[in-house]
Amino acid sequence: MSQAPFDAVMLSYDEPIADRLHARLQRVLGIQVKRLHGVQGMRRAYRLAAEVVDAEQFLLADADFVIGTEFDLRAVEPLPEGTSMRVWRARNPLNGLIYGYGGLKLIRRSALRDLGEAVDVLAALPGRTQFVPDIAGTTRINQSPYHAWKAGFRECAMLARGSEYGMDDAEAAERIAAWSTAGEGEFAQFAIFGAREGVTFAREAARVPALFDKLNDPGWLFAQFTARHGEQAVAG
């Protein structure tokens, strides 16, 4: 594999097809992609990512990101001064939305080492975030009923709470509506269930803001899913 000015890392936790997506990422980028697997806590995982790379700027992908074969690493420009992260858009295969959710990121190692506190963890990076119109791939959130539900739950809870990236309320409402009502493909109904329940959770958590931290607790999320939909998920 060729040398590149950027390093690359995939973060995986329990995604069923993470191995295949990691192999695809390496093949398309043409470089070795490091992998952090099973790290408890999203903030801790991001901070550890900064310690396994060798370059100041590196690509960061989740284990549900399917990189497009047309993505050309050679065309990627370094981050400008004062910018901590660039986000490429991703297609959502269930509801047709295309935005930064689940997209590929170029990020500064030094910024991750200075990560602040936010529910949407990377919103707490110092410096600017650059959202670009280019689409880098697809977010394969529907690897199982649970993963589809979790995606809808977390994203719509954070949108209903108020975007930490400065998205206006009208745009957030449009995205919540799409997550909550539109869905085609495997396990799409679980993503819709999750979206609706995430909005309800956000309303309840508004009275106890510390509850929003649960959105980054995989054990709590899985318990919520199994309590609500476990039998249905097993039965199909």
Please tell me the overall pLDDT.
Answer: 92
Cα(first) to Cα(last) distance is: 42 Å
Largest sheet: 8 strands, mixed
Which structural category fits the helices and strands?
alpha/beta
Proportion of residues in β-strands: 15-25%
The general outline is globular
Count of individual helical segments: 7
- Low-confidence blocks of residues: none
Key words describing this protein structure:
7 helices; 236 residues; alpha/beta; globular; 8-stranded mixed β-sheet
Question: What's a concise summary of this model?
Answer:
The chain has 236 residues and is α/β, with parallel strands linked by helices. Helix content is 39%, strand content 19%. The chain starts with 6 loop residues before the first strand and ends with a helix.
Write the layout of secondary structure elements.
Blueprint: E1 7-12, H1 18-29, E2 34-37, H2 42-52, E3 57-62, E4 65-67, E5 83-91, E6 98-99, E7 105-108, H3 109-112, E8 128-139, H4 145-161, H5 169-181, H6 188-205, H7 218-235
Parallel strand pairs: 1-2, 1-3, 5-8
Antiparallel strand pairs: 3-7, 4-8, 5-6, 5-7
